[in-house]
Write a structure and sequence with these properties.
With about 400 residues, the protein is α/β, with parallel strands linked by helices. The protein contains 14 helices and 16 strands.
């Protein structure tokens, strides 16, 4: 007869053998969507980002390690302190494993500091400042969709090459707008153009008249809109009322989305040169995702919404492949796995947190060129990742050796 000690030892070995990384998980995987549901960026992210996250969870199978995947969401009101308060609560007491979206660069940079403190993953799909993967980079943050460097280099260089060599900027007065102006201004000057000046406006401005008059008085060939969402829409509408384009100046929307074109209509938006990371009518994969999203949300997805789907799905695949929710292990797996989905078929997550992929240069169609609802863009060029995004060595990220 075996001794009691031997039996206990055998039982312990059997128990250890049955504990896999998956079954060792004690809590369900939980994703938090921090977005703008009520202000200037709600169309480009907002509820659409929540639905995109939900679609990714469903497509993955809805479960991780035998437990349902949970999702929570909240409105940050585009305030860094509100974003930080919610993120702290989610990470400290509510068991959130990953936070996604972050509608402004200021909210993203604030939550990034907490992400370092709690060693939790966050994926930025809305905010655009290139500082997120530059001087402010974090080992726990991925920047997914686009950034001010990429947009500046694709749109800015194309416009300068076509004769738009003097610029005046209309700039949202916070870190995103400043980054757009800085990065685009660098491109203009490198290409041999001149920046004649700029004017700053508050976020979510209703009246652009005084700012547009200064831009008009500059006589610059190009008025660069270093803003986004509702601010870009209002600036373009009011520029039309002032007769700025009719007077010989042109507008350059550095960061613009298909939802903005939809709100403006093709009559106002026609001819604009813009860059996007995703367009629903690029290929079979983008069309399939776009039509599924349209059925659920009644709008075609913006690039941010498609990217939120992509980032969520990639994160879930990485957790599954890692067999654990451990942050460092999952981040390593996210960098190891290629990004291949409806958003991009050539994505790679770099060590500075930048997910690099092709960007696309489009021109907005004339009304008579559009074949139906949401048929808004003509593809001018696909810009490879190594041309669109800042080289790894140039960002100033302390993580890059």
């Amino acid at each position: 007869m075996k001794s009691i000690a031997a039996l206990m030892s055998a039982a312990a070995l059997l128990s250890a053998a049955l504990i896999t990384p998956a079954s060792a998980q004690q809590t369900p995987l939980k994703i938090g969507v921090l977005s703008d549901f009520s202000s200037v960026y709600s169309d480009i992210g907002g509820q659409g980002n929540v639905e995109a996250t939900r679609m990714a969870i469903e497509d993955f199978g809805g479960q991780m390690f035998g437990k349902p995947i949970d999702m929570v969401s909240a409105d940050v009101l585009n305030k860094p302190d509100v974003a930080s308060t919610i993120a702290r609560k989610w990470w400290e007491t509510e068991g959130v494993d990953m936070i996604i979206d972050l509608p402004t660069s200021a909210t993203a940079l604030a939550v990034m500091e907490l992400s370092k403190q709690y060693e939790k993953i966050m994926i930025v799909t809305d905010a655009a400042s290139s500082d997120i993967t530059g001087k402010s980079c974090s080992p726990y943050t991925a920047h997914w969709t686009y950034d001010t460097y990429a947009n500046a280099h694709t749109v800015g260089s194309a416009i300068v090459k076509n004769g738009g060599d003097t610029w005046f900027f209309l700039t949202a007065d916070y870190v995103f707008g400043h980054s757009v102006e800085r990065d685009t201004g660098d491109v203009v000057k490198t290409a041999g153009g001149k920046v004649l000046g700029s004017v700053k406006h508050p976020l979510n401005t209703a009246d652009f008249s005084s700012f547009l008059l200064q831009a008009q008085a500059s006589k610059a060939k190009i008025i660069g809109l270093a803003n986004g969402g509702g601010d870009t829409i209002n600036a373009i509408k009011q520029a039309g009322e002032f007769g700025i384009v009719a007077g010989g100046q042109n507008l350059a929307a550095i960061v613009m989305f298909i939802s903005d074109v939809h709100s403006l209509g093709l009559k106002l938006a026609q001819g604009l040169i813009i860059t996007e990371a995703y367009y629903w009518d690029l290929n079979d994969k983008t069309r399939a995702f776009g039509k599924r999203f349209l059925e659920r949300v009644k709008r075609m997805p913006t690039m941010n919404q498609a990217a939120t789907y992509s980032a969520t799905l990639h994160y879930l695949k990485a957790v599954q492949a890692a067999g654990t929710k451990d942050t460092k292990t999952v981040m390593a797996k996210m960098r190891e796995l290629p990004v291949r989905d409806a958003f991009t078929d050539n994505g790679v997550l770099r060590e500075d947190g930048r997910m690099v992929h092709s960007m696309y240069l489009f021109q907005v169609k004339k009304p008579e060129e559009s074949k139906g609802p949401w048929d808004y863009y003509k593809l001018l060029a696909e810009v490879p990742a190594d041309q669109a995004f800042r080289p790894l060595k140039d960002g100033g990220c302390p993580l890059v050796k």
